[in-house]
């Protein structure tokens, strides 16, 4: 586990350094009306269903550029996982192509609940970009506010972003197993996948022994917006998260777990991401697999 990297302060703000990880629709609208320089990234992505680019082409926020989670924000699938970390040079090139610069503000959104947007937020933060915000409620919140969308694709001025990996803590399989015993390892998948009752994507069902189930659906309300920090902190406390323990999260392939990291960040809790997640864990047949419910003490 790498815990030497700085973590964002969820209360920090200003024009330099870390910014609060969320932005509300009215605040983004004001920035755009003032013509404040903002790189808007449309990260809509569907595990099942039409590619996100199709949603983008049907309508997106004015000035937004599409970013492909599978190809721009992750490396090729393989033993490292279905959405492993991209190579720094590849990620740098992808972000420059969509206009991301070193110090410019980036706002990323998806359909509603920020699952895909959180992975883009986390990856940019991991590679050293400090001014990244997620549009709380996403595209749905924008349109429900009566704000305009467009099918026009903007001309993009290439950015000068430089990828500097290692700025957020990560876990590998060994670190995840260790954390499940000595700290708190949260499994962000749906309960039935955690229990091993079904596994629609990966070849083996179940969870990492000692992990505690915390589906990301519990991080947001019915409107797709994140719960208030105090409610998120209460939620994680019930799962055994305390200031005295190291915390990490995983899911199927490191996408919804990034959403968990963002929710933990909002609650003021630093946490490491197991990027390879379950798809990496089960690639090694020697890794143990647990099924069934988890107990409040983290046992199985």
TrEMBL record:
Pfam families: Rhodanese
Region (Disordered), start-end ranges: 196-220
Keywords of the record: Pyruvate, Repeat, Transferase
Occurrences of domain Rhodanese (ranges): 34-151, 179-290
Superkingdom of origin: Bacteria
Xref: InterPro entries: Rhodanese-like_dom, Rhodanese-like_dom_sf, Thiosulphate_STrfase_CS, TST/MPST-like
Name by which UniProt lists this protein: Thiosulfate/3-mercaptopyruvate sulfurtransferase
Native species: Actinomadura hallensis
Lineage, top ranks: Bacteria, Bacillati, Actinomycetota, Actinomycetes, Streptosporangiales
């Amino acid at each position: 586990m790498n815990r030497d990297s700085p973590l964002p302060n969820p209360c920090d703000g200003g024009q330099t350094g870390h910014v609060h990880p969320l932005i509300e629709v009215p605040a983004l609208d004001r920035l755009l009306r003032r013509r404040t320089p903002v790189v808007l990234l449309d990260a809509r992505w569907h595990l099942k269903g039409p590619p996100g680019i199709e949603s983008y082409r049907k309508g997106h926020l004015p000035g937004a550029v599409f970013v492909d989670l599978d190809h721009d924000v992750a490396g090729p699938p393989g033993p490292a996982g279905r959405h492993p970390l991209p190579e720094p040079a590849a990620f740098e090139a992808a972000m420059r192509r969509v206009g991301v610069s070193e110090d410019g503000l980036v706002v990323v959104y998806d359909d509603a609940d920020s699952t895909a947007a959180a992975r883009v937020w986390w990856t940019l933060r991991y590679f050293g970009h400090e001014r990244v915000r997620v549009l709380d409620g996403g595209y749905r919140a924008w349109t429900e506010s009566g704000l305009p969308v467009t099918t026009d694709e903007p001309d993009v001025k290439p950015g000068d972003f430089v990828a500097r990996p290692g700025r957020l803590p990560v876990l590998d399989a060994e670190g995840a197993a260790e954390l499940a015993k000595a700290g708190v390892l949260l499994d962000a998948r749906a309960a039935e996948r955690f229990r091993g009752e079904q596994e629609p994507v990966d070849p083996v069902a179940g969870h990492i022994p000692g992990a505690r189930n915390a589906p990301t659906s519990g991080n947001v309300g019915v409107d797709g917006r994140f719960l208030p920090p105090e409610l998120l902190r209460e939620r994680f406390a019930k799962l055994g998260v305390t200031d005295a323990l190291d915390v990490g999260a995983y899911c199927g392939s490191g996408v919804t777990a990034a959403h968990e990291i963002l929710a933990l960040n909002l609650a003021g809790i630093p946490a490491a991401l197991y990027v390879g997640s379950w798809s990496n864990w089960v690639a090694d047949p020697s890794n143990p697999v647990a099924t069934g419910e988890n107990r409040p003490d983290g046992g199985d």
